[in-house]
Amino acid sequence: VQLQASGGGLVQAGGSLRLSCAASGSIFGANVMGWYRQAQGKERELVALSFSGGVATYADFVKGRFTIFRDNTKNTVALQVNSLNPDDTAKYYCHYRRLISRDGYWGMGTQVTVSS
After folding, report:
1. How far is 76 from 100, CA to CA, in rounded Å?
2. CA 93, 10, 47, 18 torsion: positive or negative?
3. Neighbour-count burial for 84-109, b at 16+ CB within 10 Å, e otherwise
């Protein structure tokens, strides 16, 4: 499975971005796609996940600012991020995992930088 993420950039506090990720390869069965992020000097953390059955889950810090969208027909997942603040500065990674085998894959990441 290959994951290609895009949409990061530099934005002022309060601004918005839309991150996109396209998966290719052996996409099948029950799975989850979503986003994690890693700020410099910190551990990677969950941002939002979308399960193939339709359920989505978010980290508490999202607080209604982020929305995850998934298109199973195109194997894509997007993350609309609004009301950004400098604490959201991080590299955002797309992730895909099969639920049964738990095989997981990561994209290269896309940088989001929020200036104050």
Report:
1. 20
2. negative
3. beeebbbbbbbbbbbeeeeeebebeb
What's the rounded Cα separation, in Å, for the pair 1 and 95?
Answer: 10
Alpha-carbon separation of residue 35 from 20, 79, 96, 105 (angstroms): 10, 8, 9, 11
pLDDT in tens, 86-114: 999 999 999 999 998 889 999 999 999 99
The residue whose two tokens read 């002022």 is 12
Two tokens at 26? 């052996």
Under a CB-based contact definition with an 8 Å cutoff, are residues 84 and 16 in contact? yes
Tell the residue number behind the tokens 């290269």, with chain if given: 108
